[in-house]
Amino acid sequence: MGCCGGKRSQISTPPARPFMSPHPRPTPPMTMQPLTTETVTFEYVGKTAITVLGPMSRMQYRFHRPGERVQVDHRDVPYLSGVPNLRRVRKT
Questions:
Q1: Residue 23 Cα distances to 10, 16, 20, 85, angstroms
Q2: Which residues form the domain of 69?
């Protein structure tokens, strides 16, 4: 078998990569924050059921049936106001 003519010695080695742990640290799980004392009532007017995740509180709001009312953390109100078939219940 023939020689490579010394070309192997001319090939440069790739630059060293920074050390990376084979076991990366796990990120802490997102915890649900408790409902604040300021809540707003929403009513579901759809036909089945719906679950909505509040982006600020990370709470899951479950509406099991049409007409069901659920207390919502005030921080999630702007988001839930844009969800189809959810209506904010105004205090009378």
A1: 35, 19, 8, 45
A2: 31-92
